Fold this sequence. Notes:
The protein is α/β, with parallel strands linked by helices. The protein has two domains: 9-123, 3-Layer(aba) Sandwich (Rossmann fold), CATH 3.40.50.720; 132-283 and 316-331, Dihydrodipicolinate Reductase, domain 2 (2-Layer Sandwich). Helices cover 37% and strands 27% of the residues. It has helices at 23-34, 48-58, 65-71, 84-93, 108-121, 135-141, 145-150, 173-189, 285-299, 307-331; strands spanning 14-19, 38-44, 74-77, 97-101, 125-128, 153-161, 193-201, 210-217, 222-228, 235-242, 245-250, 255-261, 265-266, 273-279. Strand 11 and strand 12 form a beta hairpin. Helix 4 packs parallel to helix 5 (108-121) and helix 8 packs across helix 10 (307-331).
Amino acid sequence: MxxxxxxxxxxxxxxxxxLGAGHxxxxxxxxxxxxxxxxxxxxxxxxxxxxxxxxGEAGCPALSAADVIAASQAVIVAAPTAFHHDLAAAALSxxxxxxxxxxxxxxxxxxxxxxxxxxxxxxxxxxxxxxxxSAGMRAVLGGDGLTARVGRPLYMExxxxxxxxxxxxxxxxxxxxxxxxLDMAFVIAGAPLVGVDxxxxxxxxxxxxxxNARLRFGNGTVATITASRVSLHMERRLRLFGDAGYLNxxxxxREMMWARRGEGTPLDQIPGFGLQxxxxxxxxxxxxxxxxxxxxxxxGAPVQADGAAGRAALDAAIRVEEAVRASLEAAGP
Length: 333
């Protein structure tokens, strides 16, 4: 894809429109309105009153969906999942770059259609896997990287639990919360998914609210992921075992520690191994995601969470949901 700029992209601004002004769409609009490389062209929501309110906050016009696309060089799709494909396809067909919230679409077939359409139009298709832009994941993956800390990843355990909130109930906890860790499991494993087992239940809604999944990847890496949106407190952790060490991350405390042979403070419990620790300073992940999108559109920078990544995470999420249904059917009434 050719960048919009011709080498002078640092001073250019990307005209962005927002389709969907709900809970997260509002955040996109407010952040885009202040983005150093973004000019907010307008927004649309199916609820005209909601659109007017958020447009007033962001200082942009409330427009029809077609007018938002026409006024923009790029579009952020933040509507409910069921509308992702149609809205993103309309923008891509008009030759607009698209940042579509996760999940990329409601079905793998819809995801494939968006990927093909973006390629045919030569435009950016980025998926809102915001964890790729978080300070925590950059700390885990950055610097010397995972290999320098634990060697080849063998087993990971991710926990993401949160209190109940009456939003995002149009999808299961798998597509709401777990999908973040499914995406990161692909990044860590670096291999295709070959098997899924899962259990779960609806608790406070009519969709799955708590799920535990076990994923097997083609290179032998295994991931166990737990997601809940009906807990009394928040918890976000990652434990990673490799063939050369162990890593433990507490995202809420912004701390990580790892043990590796011959490095760090010697551990009496594990002869020959040493312990190292690190912290990080939090940053605005949505701002970082917008900056990456602008860089991809204006400068031709690599897309950090492209359509293929979004499709892989969606496919994994659907397979987890199917595995839960199978486990519930096997359990009987």
